[in-house]
Fold these 3 entries.
Entry 1:
Amino acid sequence: MLPRTMSRWSPETRERARRILARYPEKRSAVMPLLYLAAAEDGHLTPEGMEEVARWVGLTPAQVQSVASFYTMYKRERTGRYLVSCCTSISCMLLGADEVLAAVEDEAGVPAGETDDEGVITVEHVECIGACGGAPALQVNYELVEGVTPDTARELIRWLRSASPEAVHTDEMQELFGTRRSFDWAVPERVGAVGPFPAFEPYGTTDGNP
Amino acid sequence: MSDHVTVTIDGRKLEVPAGELLIEAAQEHGTYIPRFCWHPRMKPVGMCRMCLVELETPRGPAIVTACTTPVSDGMVVHTRNETVQRMQEGVLEFLLINHPLDCPVCDRGGECPLQDHVMAYGPGESRFVEEKRHFEKPIPISELVLLDRERCILCARCTRFSEEISGDPLIEFTDRGNGVHIATFPDLPFSSYFSGNTVQICPVGALTATAYRFRARPWDLEAVESTCMHCTAGDRINLQASHNEVVRILGVDVEPTNQGWLSDRCRFGFQYVGSPDRLTVPLIRDAEQGHTEVTWSEALDLAATRIGEVLAGSGGQSVAVLGGARLTNEDAYALSKFARVVLGTNHVDAQMDDGLDPQFLAATVDRALISDLDSAKAILVWGPDLKEEHPTLYLRVRRAAQELGAALVVVHPRRTGLDDRATHKLTYRPGEGADLLTELVAGSGRASQARQALAEGPVVGLVGRTGYGEDPRLAEAVAAFVRTLPDARILPLARRANIYGALDMGLAPTLLPGRVSVGGEGARSIAEAWGGLAEHPGLDTRGILEAAAAGDIEVLFLVGADPLRDVPDGALARRALERVPFVVAIDQFLTDSSRLADVVFCADGFAEKEGTVTNLEGRVQKVNRIVPGPGQTRPDWSILDDLARRLGVELGFGSAEAISKEIADVAPAYRGVTWDRLDWEERDGIVVPDGGEAPLRFVPADTPGTRAGGDLVLHLARVMYDDGVTVRHSPSLAGLAPGAAVHLHPDDAARLGLASAETARVVTEQGEATLPIRLDDTLHRGVVYVPFNQPGMPPLGPGPAVTVTPA
């Protein structure tokens, strides 16, 4: 492994990592927020990124991998520019989530768990995303859209492809494709399936967001 | 009894220590509660659910895991009622959802806890018809260990061992839910010095060892308990053989020494015993033809004739004996008596220029026991890197610092395995240890905090040489300092096999058996018992080699000794061996050195003979025989006995056991140590009294220290895997040596213009070598670290002055 003094990360990322590390009395406690940084740095969580985190927090890479592989939101494979996560838990399922998912898969041209050839859209089905009041719901890069229908879901995918927004924003997408909404929350998130949900001030991951 | 509580287990009222875990308390009273994940030397986790029992509580029956539940007064427990039996059946049925039934081809079959538990507690039939989960099987996770993830029952014993006990968590659970499996990180193998322990404690056949895989079935094995002779801790082992071949070594859990754990060198380093390269017949060397095979009589006659001529001519002073640390105490005693009585020489040394005073190693007063580490408030390690040279001692110190709250001060020229658990770590340049010691004694400068950590006793000091560049007297000065600390005890550290036994048997120029000083009071009774003793002052290994190189030694005995590879100044050893007219080797292999011998006697080795060994605490334990030696090998004592007879002296050795009785008679410290007691009453060994006839009283030395002239100083130190015969001839270990290299601090490398160089020329007073460069920012600046005796490395010499230039 590289000595601690040699980092693959940019100076900005290293500075963020130092600030995150300073919040914890035990270095190893910083493993989760640092994994988000590693993912942001490389677009997804790479072995090199996990090794880097291991050096920062004083764990072995195997231990970091153990944490990273337990949580589904640490993406260890390349995801598309837009990660579309369709909830299929009970509230959403009762209100037609299966049809929404089928529409998303059909429009994106890939089954859940895969990314299209252009690297634009990744589809996944997820368990409850805490939007039962606005079911059926989905997320794009962890930004919520509530009350989607199979038709608006198709429009959403087409919009992502054609408008190719620099950043997705829950308010904008809700306006365009959503119907019922439960409440308004979350801050805009940068492109890529790399951020925490939502961007958490305590994690030091909100800065730099539009 | 206030520290005991009363519990009722299956209707039996029992008095058990308060706070003990239910699973332990039950077992101590004969109730075995089945378990997979619980291990007595590790913290409980309650992962496998096999130890579920029923408690009677005021709110009705409660189900708990016995491995996480401490006993409390009045507790009523059921371990075999109908509810518990149904739960046990359920747990086993669940464990078998994914576990393959490949027992007939599984190494564990026949000694498998899962197999046994399914037979004893299982439901008999499974209701599951679903497909089991599939993984590629097995995958190598290191050079030594293979992982079969299908067989794994996720008990976390291996992962807990590597984190809690050995401190190198390179395997971990990965993924979640039904996908959970044990994994290493890609391209980062489970290269732990202790990986074999995970194979031993795996409750199924998920982890298997390359050295044992498909070699035997448990019911084919013969087994005997013995003592490991790789390092000096005296670890208890179970030595197992099949069809006259040693196939496996397991750790035996004894409290005083290894607590069940072994290093991989001990566990897999038995393969040399059955190596096809073993010597099986005596050899004599001919100037033209090299070595030729001869009969024992021919070899013995030749040796006796030549030795007789030399003794008649120039006497015992021109005969010397090197080696003996690989021998049992009985063989070492035989060699000591042979040298003093038959050869009439005191030029005897079992330490291969390791540099420490034999009195310091053997006759230290206030000598600690390994178990003293458990109750120590503070531990000072100023000596070799324990992880490399005393691996099970490393585990014990690690546990003391990590679990038992001891303050740990480590002093060494570079990173050591204990650094992550050290309260204080001090680095220094070899040769400047005396300055650092002065600071530590005064509690000043950068040693002030470390000094404070040592203020509260009991203190245990583990003291030895950090490397060959270090002044050997420094260790004694450090020990002198340790003796000034409150309630302090000392473990003097040396690494060579049975070196403490060899010294106790008098294989040192200044010592006779029982730590009696040559020329001292006790020597008279030994002279009387032996019918004579050598009179002249003896030379140590360095002295012997220098005398030999100068032409003053005419006969040199090498007993399990390979000075060309094994003494730090290999060039001196070569000059010596080439100059001596007649070299006799008693060995198991043709080593670089015994290749130069005129007569080579083939000897029995480890696992082929019975005897005793003495560990670094002074604990005498048995080693036992499980296989015959190959070909015509004989025990060392018997070779010496025959040689003595041809030289007209009757040594009177009838058997190794008879020698042990003679030792008990002659050597004061070994009175009362008999094989009978060791075999039956004292299975954990007998600790002989510390100190000697003239016990060394330490006085703080006035700044010993050889200062290297230049600004670079060599740190030449041993590592676990080197090019020694036992590692080289054990195929599982041979590839693990890290290889010859020169380690430089990045700043030093830059200063020397080597920042981007691949190799460097390293030159000392004694030798030179071109070595690959490794950058190591844990080195003290100005220290050049070279691991000793790596494959293909020319002898470099101990330095300490060194120059490093672009190759």
Entry 2:
Amino acid sequence: MFKKFRKKSPWILHYNAGSCNGCDIEILACLSPKYDLERFGVINTGNPKQSDIFLVTGPVTFRSRERLVELYTQMPEPKVVVAVGSCTCTGGVFRDMYNVEDGIDRYIPVDVYVPGCAASPELIIDGVVKALEVLEKKTKAIEKPRKLFKEALSKEGIVDRRECALKVGEDDAKDTE
Amino acid sequence: MLTQILLIAPFLFALVVVFAGVRLRNILTVAFVIFLACVSLLHLLFINEPLGYDLPHEFHTLFFFFDALLLLYFLYVGIAKKDTLVASLAASQIVLYGAVKFVGGGEGSHDLFIDNTSLMMYLIINIVGGIIVVYSLKYIESEEFGRLKKNGFIAVLFFFLGVMNFLVSTDNIEIFFLLFELTTLCSYILIGYRKDAVATQNALRALWMNQIGGVAILSALLLALVSYKTFSFELLIANIDATYLFPVVFLLIAAFVKGAAIPFEKWLLGAMVAPTPVSAILHSATMVKIAPFMVLKLSPAMSVFLSEAVMLFGTFVFFAASLLALSKNYFKEILGLSTIALLSFMMALAALGTQEAILAASILMVFHALSKALLFLQLGILEKEFHLKYVNDIESLMSYSPLVVFFIVFGFASLTLPPFGVFIGKFMAFESFAAGIQESPVFLAALLFSALGSVFLTILYFKVLTKVFVRDMRLGTSKTKEIATTYKYTSWALSILLGAGIVWSLERQLFGMWEIVIPALLIAIVPLLLFVFILKNAHRVKEYNCGEKEEAVLNMYYLHTPPALQKIIVVLSLVFLGSLFLGVAL
Amino acid sequence: MSEILLILLAPVIGGVLYGFERVVRARMQNRQGPPLLQPFYDMMKLIDKQTLIVNPTHALLGVMHFVALWAVVAFTIMGGNLLYIVFLHLLASLFLVLAAFSVKSIFSHLGANRELLTMIAYEPILVMLSVAFYIQNGSFSIEAVRANPSALGSLFFLFLAFLFVVQLKLKKSPFDAAKAHQEIVGGAEVEFSGLFFEFVYMALWLEYVFVYLLLLLFAGNNVLLGALLFGVVFLLVNLVDNATARVRMEHLIKIFLGIAVSLAALNLLGLSYV
């Protein structure tokens, strides 16, 4: 009965996991009067305990990865993770560099990927709306940990990273929803 | 008849306790305390109107003898410890006493005079004082004294109870002086009981500062004998002439000294090095209550100027002492300064003299004694069981001993929140000030000082809970430490008495029923909820620290008073005191 | 009878008021703002979250804060003793402070200490307000105030001082250092989540109801004046909130003790001797 209110009042937690700030600026622009996310009831709470949507930017740097997971665990279920910007999805222009971890889906399960460098506010709003649809379907049970990456297949010593990511739904057969 | 028992019994008990073995001493002390408490309660039932007794003439000679011995002993202490202040004040007291005896004459009313104020003080002294004596039985067990010295501690406490009982029943200013100086003697002995350097130094300081009060009483007595030809409080007040109020002013100065008003607060703060029962009984619950007691006695004699001046001074000290307490870390100093603040507030109300103000002052006296005794007992537990003196050293007390935390929070709550007695007293005080505002702007200043002082005290108490109330979930319940039975029972006794106070105020209709019941329910539900709803099924999560893994290190806030402001406060209080004399002279 | 109904519906009224205020603030900022009933959508969503608590003391004291504040609003609606209500409100705030002190979190303690400091700011003014009404009407009772004609003319300085208090109690700029969302992440409310945050959230709505009820006292028995005052102050409070930056705690206390308390004291002097 309360489920339909989940999408009427999504509170976001915005975290910068080593980003260049471009996507952060775009997210803050969403909250400004021109794009106005607050008309959907969105409030930017800085507090994981009081938020539903985890908006992350930045390819995960060495120092931010522990804090990323800490913040994710402090959010109560049901929650969704929205990866904003190409860096957050796959590493973007910094892919394969020595100091980044190529995106957050190595550490926390991501529900919506918003591409772009920097992702435009309209795209971000689109992503948040899609996240709300996903949020409606989630349960209050703690999300079971699932493998985010499968073993890399090596062809002649070259690893094709495009084969590494699990497709959405693959290996999810054991989840109930 | 009942009163004679109350006056003589504690001295006998003191003698008996000195020579008893440990178990006998414990049993006897508890029995004596219960006996004294019952006798003081019986007084309430049987004595309905003021009583006066006369003592036979031999007693007067005996008292003169004791007095002379006492003053000579003070002189000896001053010379032996090479303390000029003690010696010179003792010498001046001897001279003044000689002058008093030389002038002589004067008529008095009765030597013993028991009225409602005395009955109320009996309750405070015997019940609260008695509970503290029982507490000290366990407390001194862990001190490094020999058996005789430990028994001596209890004996001196009983002796002190006897002196206090006598002090609040006497009408003769000369006997009052003797007893006043006997309480100073008790203070000196008990503060210096541990015999280390700091203790001896603070004991000497307490001695000379209290002797200023003695000098003041003797001057008042001398003036009363010379101009009013009386040595009795009642006759002095009855025949008071509004143009010659000097005796009253000197007696008020003595009250300020005993109540450690600024600028006399150093002796009380220094006295906090004494064993905790001493701090509890002498310096917050019982002995310092002499100050508002004296002002209550003198309030019919005060002229409009004097009562307004004392009211202004009292509320000013209330404000200043609370402000100073905000910068302290030593737990006992925090409680000591808040005692000074509330005592001055009681003195201000007593000086005001209206019926509501006097009722407010009396309520404050009784309930403040209960609350402060409870708090000091918890400090003693912290000192003995957990070896904690400073607030910032307290870590995770909630996991080690939730009971002590409950008592501390209860004690602080009973000093600030409805429906407890101290709150009711403060509330009636505000109503009295509001009623008087249209007479004189002094009431507005008093109201402002009281409002600010009261909010400073609230902040003070709850800021201390920063460290006390933290519940560290990582420690779990296995760390709980049991505290000794005596400590538990005495704390519960005081808490139950505080609760009984709520029922009493409900019955007396000091407030509407809902105004008392609802906050009582709100406060009572909290411990109930915490024991019933432990929320086992809820998931636990870490505190928010921006995702960092380090543990938070927490400290209590200080609100530092700059030294310049402290000097201004002392100067202002001296100006106030001076203006009392000036105003009365004009 | 109608008073009992009002008391029971107080959180709902507060919620509608809070929602309306969000819309007004948004329109002032030239944007659309959330729907009117947004606080109730928030409430439903918060009830539906997984219960995560730090420790039971913290969660339960948050609930007691809400209950105590409801009791305060109940006393105000029933017309009790104004001075007593001021101190009962202190009890409600102290529940929140105690709750915040029971967790080992830096932001929580920071917020609670700041909350304690703000008491220095508003308590004296509320006490002087009660005394002023006492001088006007001869009694501390709110019923007497509501029965008599409006005292706004003779209590004008006190009204100005009270506006400071309104800004502080509703946790709005420039006096929102105790909540300080961007600075200390909500202060005392930081460790609440889910259902228990809902109680603290509703406590904020009740605070609105309480403060505006006190405001209506200045209108006495004149309902029209009350509505006018409410409208003007509502807009003014939101305008100042949108237009000013946050003030630091020391400055907050200096502003209150310097300006607001002086205004109130001046008014009291004037009431007694003019």
Entry 3:
Amino acid sequence: MGDSLGKFIKTLQLDTRLLGMIGAFLLIAVIFNVATGGTFLTPRNIFNLTLQTASVAIMATGMVFVIVTRNIDLSIGSIVGVIGMVMGLVQAFWLPEIVDFGSPVIVVVTVICGIGLGILIGGLQGWMIGYLMIPSFIVTLGGLLIWRGAAWWVTRGTTVSPLDPNFVMLGGASGTIGVTASWALAIVGSLATVWFLMSSRRQQASHGIAVKPVWAEVVLGSILVGSIAGITAIINAYEVPVRVLQRRFERAGLEMPEGYTEAYGFPISVLIVIAIAIVMTIVARKTRFGRYVFAMGGNPDAAELSGINTRLLTVKVFALMGGLAGIAAVVASARLASAGNDLGTLDELRVIAAAVIGGTALAGGVGTIYGAILGAFIMQSLVSGMGMVGVDAPFQNIIVGAVLILAVWVDIIYRRRTGEA
Amino acid sequence: MTTPLLEMRNISIHFGGIKAVDDVSIDLMPGEVVGLLGHNGAGKSTLIKILAGAYKKDSGEIYVDGKKVDIRSPADARKYNIETIYQTLALSDNLDAASNLFLGREITTKFGLVDDTKMEAESRKIMARLNPNFKRFSEPVRSLSGGQRQSVAIARAVYFNARILIMDEPTAALGVHETAMVADLIKELKAQGLGIFLISHDTREMMELCDRVSVMKNGQLVSTERVEDVTEDDVLSMIIMGKKPGEKEDA
């Protein structure tokens, strides 16, 4: 039985580490579901879980590149803080003097400022690491203090609130796309998945490289499409509470029809996470930049002797990390509808933990984008699950810390078994 | 006399106060194998790293086909079809054979993305020629044997039409059978007209494979001799004493 399952997995060319992580994730979910008497796996909680995970998941994809190149970034939580504050000022104080309140220009300019500032800060730190040869641990440890201090200094410690209503849609439950659009996206995603499987098969065959049996492709495709449909169905099952709907109708001066219901659909922030996951996966596996990131992580000397400019590559990796911190700052401050100077505090540790739980090796050279995102969800499920069960805050930290160490230990054993060094 | 494929004239480089390479001149003809011999720290590896673009020389000139060239980076060296196989096997252990073979020179699709399928197919073609037993194309090279890794490194040089091939201890990590395979390959590449610099500690192997040997000691060139003009003992005494065969009688 075990043997035939192994053969099945091998024929499908599935990543056993990924399967292990999904298994761990499901196990955590089921345990909390039992412990909370069935509330953990409700559509409402899953919906909230995805919102809470978004900003850490976004940054975890960039952290994979940072760690793969044998670096670390301890400054991203503080970068989120300073970018959140600057974006708060831009949208609440500076832009309203130039354009009308509620104008879409505000959100566009604010987001561009945030991402741009992130790229600048990350690029500056990357330059110090790549060209001045200061260890990334030190540069970003300094950055952790500098940018948190800067966040405080920008507004003298006051919180900017409320934020622009269009901006807030990028992070919270107010920005969802509804049921129809969610299903439409799910269909587009499924078609793209099937097309991708078919075209890569055709390409391999055209070069005479052995392909999987057709049934394996069909099983794999069915699992993927089934997952997309399942997640969409769960998210679409979370309905807007009746009170909220009533208030909305009252504000419009209308009577709410009897039995009227409406569901949220996918939040915009979750779509941002999905888009970033896809783009970052392509960057990691299908671009020269991504290839060089992994080559440098595997053997920096070999990369250099192959003509790769590893210094400039380091700058690019940290600039990318900074840009992603900018996007994370958008999502995080939008979710809270305010920009406080403590925004993003301790995020660097959550992000590093997510990447490491997701199989990114601190020795460099190894890591996946999907692993990091799954790692972020595992961390967040653990934290919010314990909160729901009523575990005291100090115990929550103790457990999260222990799980991090355990996960890495299991990973080390796994690598030793599979001979992955 | 034909123009040398490569000439390095009066090359010097120092690290701190130490002259690692001191006014060394060597040359290489098409279809010729020149061995570089010397103790550890004699300057052989430093000299060829200058040619490969990994180090920048302090002074001296390099000529390819009689034309002066400026080599400042590994990319420059590749431009002149100078390929290097390093002692340390400069491979990224976490990448597969095809990714290593094409590292820095990936084949891309019309959208600018790396074309792994095409690169794997090309790798299979070149490997079928160099090492027909090589089958593990999709595994990270860390799981390969020393000989298999060596064939990836050699395939990289051959695929990109190396004219000048630098081999730094190509057989140091290999077993008997694999060493013989590399020796055959060197003969084949030589027959195709490549110029090869070979670095090795194995004097006997060098006498067998090389046309000429250049011996270095303490950063300086002791002498360059045709292998048929010297015995293995002569070469050993040049390595140890730093003296040319002719000088031996005077001493």
